[in-house]
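Records of this kind hold a single protein each, on a pair of labelled lines. With that in mind, the following record should read easily:
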Amino acid sequence: MLVKKSMTVAASVAAIALALTACTSSTPAAPASSESASSTAPAVDYQLVTAGTLTVCSDVPYAPFEVEDATTASGYSGFDIDLMDAIATKLGLKLAVIDSDFDALQSGTVLVANQCDLAASAMTITDERKQNLDFSDPYYDSLQSLLVKTDSGITNLAGTAGKKIGVQKGTTGKSYATKNAPSTAEIVDFPSDGELWPAIQAGQIDAILQDQPVNHTHEVADPSYKIVETYNTDESYGFAFAKGKKLELQKAINDQLTAMKSDGSYDTLYKKYFG
């Protein structure tokens, strides 16, 4: 009797184990990588050019907004670049900067080609540009200005009659000069401030009409040049995106700008570059 009972119990245990094994094998196990993939996947798809990297196009140099800087990870610094670096860090991204022609940026050509995620290049928000670009919230208010040699005898825009005024192609500075300079003034296009500044130093032009902070950088660096007029054109800068292509990224940038203005980090950067 004891032997028979033991055999019966053993048979029952074996049957239960077999049933459990069959039940387990009928339900596929989740892939081992699923948990790690979900934990590392971004909460929002920013449609980045390069995964994990915020790629920014900027026309360099345009101090104090963007300058080459070998001491930084991206190779660049300046008000725009430092803002972008802070925002990228908040979004858990690395920052990469590509030097680009400003005219190609403000027309949207570079952005539509998806060479970068956005343009951070002291770009004024205008209705004309909004036809091809989406903009972030404004992050900087600017003036236009006229820079000349201190001994030039030029004291205002009217004094540039018969003179050469250097401007950057595609900028609001060029638009202002075209509309307001004397008819006998010659307006000369340059690709960037990197060519404008050497041109006035070499005597190739008599004045530079461009954003006040950039001209101010020059007059501080060299007292033989000065700003003789500023023009309130109600301009505000914004970061630019390809039209309708980076809406989630645009929202994230706006959210971070708001946060930086609230926590004081925006003011810290502003004082660093503009006092």
Observations:
- The two ends are 99 Å apart (CA to CA).
